[in-house]
Amino acid sequence: MSGGVLLLATLCTSLFTALLIFLLPERAFRARTGLNLGAALVKLTLVAWMVWGLSRGHAYALEFPVLEGLAFVLRADALGIMFAGLSSLLWLFTTIYAIGYLEDSPNRKRFFGFFSLCVASTLGISLAGNLFTFLIFYELLTLSTYPLVVHRGTAKALAAGGVYLRFTLTAGLVLMIGMIALHVLAGDIRFGEREILAGLDLDRRPLLVGLFWVLIAGFGVKAALVPLHGWLPRAMVAPAPVSALLHAVAVVKAGAFGIVRLVYDVYGIELSAELGLLAGLVAVASVTILYGSLRALAQQELKPRLAYSTVSQVAYIVLGIGLFGPLGTIAAFSHLLHQGLMKVTLFFCAGNYAEELGIHRIDDLDGAGRRMPLTSLAFTVGALGMIGLPPVVGFFSKWYLGTGAIQAGMPWVIAVLVASSLLNAAYFLPILGRLWFLPGPDHGVGEWPEERRLGRLETHAWLLVPAVATALFSLVAGLLAGMPFSPLEWATRVVNTEYLP
Amino acid sequence: MSDALLVLVLPAMLIWPLLLMLRVPLMAALADRGQPRFPLDGLWCTAPLPALVLALSVDEGALALDWWLFGGFWLLDGMRGTLLVVTALLWLLAGVYARGYLAGEQARAVAGDEAAEARLMRFALLWPLTLCGNLLLLVAEDIASFYMGFSVMTFAAYGLVVHSQTRDARMGGLTYLVMAVLGEGLILAGLLWGAGSAGTTTLGGLREGMLEAPNGVWIGVLLWLGFGVKAGVVGLHIWLPLAHPVAPTPASAVLSGAMIKAGLIGWLTTLPLGETAAGEGFAWLGRAMLVSGLVAAIGAALYGVCQRHPKAVLAYSSVSQMGMITALVAMGLVAPTLWPALSAAVVLFAAHHGLTKGALFLGVGIGEHPPRLPAWLLWTLLALPALSLTGALASGLDAKWAFKAVLHEGDYTIVVTWLSLAAVGTSALMARTLWCQWHVERQAREEGLEPLVSAMPLAWLASLLAALTLPWWWGGELALRGLPPLAELPGLLWPLALGLAGSLGVWAVARRRPLHLARRLPPGDLWWLLVEGWQRLRVRGQGSLDRLVSARDVWVAWWVARERDVVRVLDSMTRAEEWLRRHAAVLMMGVAVGLALLMLTST
């Protein structure tokens, strides 16, 4: 199969699935499930194929002009395919989880239709070859996630959806203005053509700095950088699979990925360093890391605590970008994957507690480890990873961030990292203590808020398997970090082949 | 041959405990419901066996695993081998001991006590996991494996500390966890900083890189304090006397015997000990360590003799002994030329303390459940490790002579004098331990005796034997110096005599006029000051805290208000668009007229 067709096929797998799901009647449960899983598997295979091809030197690209001097470009480079791999893998698990989660609930057709549309746009974001294409899919992502956020249709959900839409659409507008200005200044910049902006006249530099911050403000909303993070904790009213999606795979990651593309592929890391943009990024990221952790500490409910933890963890990616040097870059790229694996696990588990036992508050979790051992084990793995303990993958991100900070001559970043680790420990360890060491209803103390026995296992198998699988992935990806095609190894390869400053 | 053995047994020693851990829930799931099995069976006890086999059969070797973490590099050398054999042996004996110690818990579980069953299950799961972490950190030479072993051990051991789930146990667990997390943070900072400056992933590279790094001394300080939490450096030791008494006795034994040695391993593998190229900064670090070590050695002894619980006394004795070891390690920075000879003495001292302290802790349980032995024999056996720890006989005498001779050769008599003073304190501590046990044992003896041939007494006797004869059965570098000549004995024994005489004197005084020191000096010393200080700060700072909270609320509300303003502007924009659309025709007309006027005027 030639390169372009493969790209198009990957993208269309999800687009067609969305279309077919909208055409199927609401009650066609089996057909829809089969279609969802089949498409997720096909897509994963196609992406794996492209990973394999890329590692052997094949190229995948597709483009056609839209206007004079503006083209729609799809291209699989090592960085893009890394993000595509993450989203396809986690998508499979999230689909499985969503099928189990939404069993017997209304409006499943609408949900899964937009769900597939959402994955299509994430894939488009990862395979986009220039800012224009990126922006198209970025906006599509905003629009297709809105119905998912307000899925429940309650007043609270609608309000959260309104906030979400206002934040992201405004950001999209800002982004478009920035992009058009950049286009006027330098024409159509393909990702990777770093020499265009670097070659501009020196008197254009102040304009470039201004545009950079305009674009960062646009991306920063989705990446939930403080103070643009307000929508994220409120979007917690969405069903658990949607939260997993917002936090680990699609939306927040799309923002972070946009910043990565902007710094490495449009401006180029050297130019960004010359213009003094990176120091600003490090400062913003450090503030976000600490602020997010502090706010997480104050939350009494599980999902908001995880939400603020996302605010803090995604800023690690931005911090890694800001550290000028190969190690910081590896940290940023690998954390893109690592955070996804760990956070999706945590949200799956939070959803399991809510579905099976009706638990939303942290102090209701006492003794849940005995009732739901596998879910609690998965949660433990995710939480320890967030704290940054080996062998869970979180440690590796932290390691590269720390050593990268030393190489970049910013030892104070280590203080931020350690403070963040301690804060993470302060808000995750009490949860683990409650899960495993406090007596709960299964020890004859009190009772669960709303217990349902969803399956023969500790909960519905469709809910349990994805949580355990992603926890295993985050453990194994750490233990075997030195193996080819592990997230860390792939990130290192990307950096060594393309982004060595 | 030994290489092949290493390649096979080194991974097996880590995997075997994990397999046994996985077996526990599997067996529980397979067993009939309502028929609780005893999870601590014979097979479960064999968890440390592969490690023991490895340590006894392989002297040196290395194993590189490219696919593991950042590239694993596991190493076995003289220092690691010695500590490995001691650790594995202690874990093995304590595991066997646990079988007997927790038999009562098992009886309750069989009788239908679900909480007891859950506790037992947790113990059976976390014990091998803690062991696995401990073994990994002993052989790891790459930083990632080492940190992994360290943190697995630290966090898994929390479950052992809080085993009994009483209020005191939770308190002990809390101090343990708070201090452990603090230590992990310091270690992480030190490791990241050091590895980042040196661009290395191994501990050896870190040690060398530290010498050249501009801020090497501060990396050293971070690592010293970070590992110091585990090793009980004065000020960071507060978890020891609170966690030890509440943990089950076999867990206390491995905690004090094996796990706090992890801090020592950390120092030995990361600090540039014996490097003559180390700058003046490291010499100052050494001096700070020396002083803190001596303060801990003597201060902990003074505080410890006022304790009531034998395990609390023993915990303070651990702080004191680790203080002595800290002082010896510090000599590696203060006087690098002494280190080659001194390092062997430090390892011997650590190994001797590990096994002897293990035997002493196991003895506490023996005092509570005395076996069928005549009282004089039992008390002789209980006193033997205590005497050994004071340096009066067997391995203790050997260890003391080893470092004393080296220090004398290097002309550091003043350090020897201070260490001897600490040994006086050790003697007093040991006297106090036995005195505390005496009451317990008398009570227990009236309630009946346990059979001699059962898990607890046998494990205890074996640990006793192993501890006393350590230098002779292990051999190698440790036994090089052998027992001291007779002429040196008075110089080595006077601390014991002085300590005993002092204890007798205090006892005689206290019998007439009770001192009630124990009530005034609770275990955990500084912790209570910190807690009180914290509470006072909270009371005093309540006002400013409230102000802070309200300031935060105002801040959040301000942002939310700004958000609302922006949203309002956005919404009004959409309304403006509507207005535009409604008046489109008029507007177009206006634009057309304007354009026409423009064209007319321009021509």
UniProtKB/TrEMBL annotation, chain A:
Parts of the chain that traverse the membrane: 6-23, 35-52, 72-99, 111-138, 163-186, 207-232, 244-263, 275-294, 314-337, 377-397, 409-429, 461-483
Taxonomic lineage: Bacteria, Pseudomonadati, Pseudomonadota, Gammaproteobacteria, Oceanospirillales
Name this protein carries in UniProt: Hydrogenase-4 component B
The NADH:quinone oxidoreductase/Mrp antiporter transmembrane domain, residue ranges: 128-422
EC code(s) of this entry: 1.-.-.-
Recorded topology in the membrane: Multi-pass membrane protein
Name of the gene encoding the protein in the UniProt record: hyfB_1
Main subcellular localisation: membrane
Organism name: Halomonas lysinitropha
Cellular localization per UniProt: Cell membrane; Membrane
Keyword Cell cycle belongs to the record: no
TrEMBL record, chain B:
One Pfam match: Proton_antipo_M
Compartments it resides in: Cell membrane; Membrane
Top enzyme category: oxidoreductase
Transmembrane stretches, start-end: 6-26, 78-102, 123-140, 146-162, 174-196, 216-240, 252-270, 282-306, 313-335, 341-364, 376-397, 412-431, 452-472, 492-510, 583-601
Enzyme Commission code(s) on record: 1.-.-.-
Membrane topology annotation: Multi-pass membrane protein
Principal cellular location given in the protein's record: membrane
Any GO molecular function: oxidoreductase activity
Alphabetized UniProt keyword annotations: Cell membrane, Membrane, Oxidoreductase, Transmembrane, Transmembrane helix
Record GO cellular component, one term: plasma membrane
Membrane in keyword set: yes
Keyword match Membrane: yes
Domain NADH:quinone oxidoreductase/Mrp antiporter transmembrane: 140-365
Signal peptide: none
InterPro entries the UniProt entry points to: CPA3_Na-H_Antiporter_D, ND/Mrp_TM
PANTHER family according to UniProt: NA(+)_H(+) ANTIPORTER SUBUNIT D1, NADH DEHYDROGENASE
Family indicated by similarity: Belongs to the CPA3 antiporters (TC 2.A.63) subunit D family.
Name used for this protein in its record: Hydrogenase-4 component B
Gene this chain is encoded by: hyfB_2
